């Protein structure tokens, strides 16, 4: 399978890709940037937010929402000013927000990471009315999160555990139950990081330090596909394009490693199709 680098933009630590308005949006955590890639022009634009930013999602009413060092924020326009909604971990100076996505009801879920590598982080749900709930803890590095097509299952990764978990999900209330491990990746090289889901409910998981994306079928318990990525720090992936058949893959730079394509954005056509991203209703 051909994995193509896109443009010449090099991120320090690219993460959180999401397809919205015919463009690919993602973040460069350590550069404090939101990044927008336009496949028509093959150009990248960046917008600095003044702090590490772990995830970005579209808003139903226009604009974007994101989470970073100082909690949850919204912006009414691309490259416009941001305003803080809430910081549920202001009392934890070693923590920042990391990966997140919106559920089918328009709630914004994002989890934190403890940079001191202690299990003091958590997964949160920001409701459209501004309420913020702590949903799952303790975790150390909250990462990939997606929902099944029928919204009945939520899949979630706490990277250091090397496990992909599933929860029964109540779309009406946002409540979680029935926690279980569906895939233990301890025997694989690298650690599960960002994650996408296709229209057949197969999980596409980026393996940080592993240089690949693996497609996993929760129904059969089998790995169906392996995509080799020319960057050892493969961080996350998302489906996009006109038919949602393009798989975009972000990466980061590994300190001390001379890697020509490290930190680049990639795309491939794996033969699967994704679904439109959910937007924040707040």
What does this structure look like?
There is one protein chain. The protein is mainly β. It has one domain: Neuraminidase. It has no helices and 24 strands. The strands form six sheets. It has a four-stranded antiparallel β-sheet with strand order 1-24-23-22, with no helix packed on it. The protein has a four-stranded antiparallel β-sheet with strand order 2-3-4-5, with no helix packed on it. A four-stranded antiparallel β-sheet has the order 6-7-8-9, with no helix packed on it. Strand 18 and strand 19 form a beta hairpin. The N and C termini lie far apart (39 Å). The relative contact order is 0.18. The mean pLDDT is 97.
Number of helices: 0
- The quaternary organization reads as single chain
CATH class: Mainly Beta
Count up the domains.
1
Task: State the helical fraction.
Answer: under 10%
Q: Classify the fold: give the CATH topology.
A: Neuraminidase
Specify the overall morphology.
Answer: globular
CATH architecture: 6 Propeller
Residue windows where pLDDT falls under 50 for at least 5 positions: none
Instruction: Sketch the major β-sheet.
Output: 4 strands, antiparallel
| SS content category | mainly beta
Q: Strand fraction band?
A: over 45%
Give the radius of gyration. Answer: 17 Å
Within the largest sheet, what's the order of strands? 1-24-23-22
Q: In angstroms, what separates the terminal alpha carbons?
A: 39 Å
What's the pLDDT, averaged over the residues? 97
Would you list the SSEs in sequence order as H and E? EEEEEEEEEEEEEEEEEEEEEEEE
Counting DSSP E segments of at least 2 residues, the number of strands comes to: 24
């Amino acid at each position: 399978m051909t994995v193509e680098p896109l443009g010449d933009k090099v991120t320090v630590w690219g993460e959180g890709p999401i397809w919205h308005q015919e463009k690919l949006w993602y973040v460069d955590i350590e550069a404090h940037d939101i990044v927008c890639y336009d496949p028509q022009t093959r150009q990248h634009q960046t917008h600095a937010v003044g702090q590490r930013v772990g995830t970005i999602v579209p808003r139903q009413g226009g604009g974007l929402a994101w989470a970073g060092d100082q909690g949850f924020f919204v912006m009414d326009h691309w490259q416009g000013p941001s305003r803080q909604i809430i910081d549920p971990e202001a009392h934890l100076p070693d923590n920042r927000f990391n990966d997140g996505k919106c559920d089918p009801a328009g709630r914004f879920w994002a989890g934190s990471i403890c940079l001191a590598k202690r299990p003091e982080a958590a997964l949160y749900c920001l409701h459209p009315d501004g309420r913020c709930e702590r949903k799952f803890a303790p975790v150390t590095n909250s990462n990939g999160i997606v929902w099944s097509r029928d919204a009945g299952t939520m899949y979630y990764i706490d990277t250091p555990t090397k496990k992909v978990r599933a929860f029964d999900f109540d779309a009406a209330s946002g409540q979680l139950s029935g926690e279980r491990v569906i895939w233990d990746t301890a025997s694989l090289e690298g650690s599960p990081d960002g994650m996408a889901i296709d229209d057949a409910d197969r999980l596409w998981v980026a393996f940080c330090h592993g240089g690949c994306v693996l497609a996993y079928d929760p129904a059969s318990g089998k790995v169906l596909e392996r995509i080799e990525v020319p960057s050892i720090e493969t961080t996350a992936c998302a489906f996009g394009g006109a038919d949602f058949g393009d798989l975009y893959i972000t990466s980061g730079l590994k300190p001390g490693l001379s890697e020509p394509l490290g930190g680049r954005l990639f795309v491939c056509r794996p033969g699967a199709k994704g679904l439109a991203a959910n937007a924040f209703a707040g």
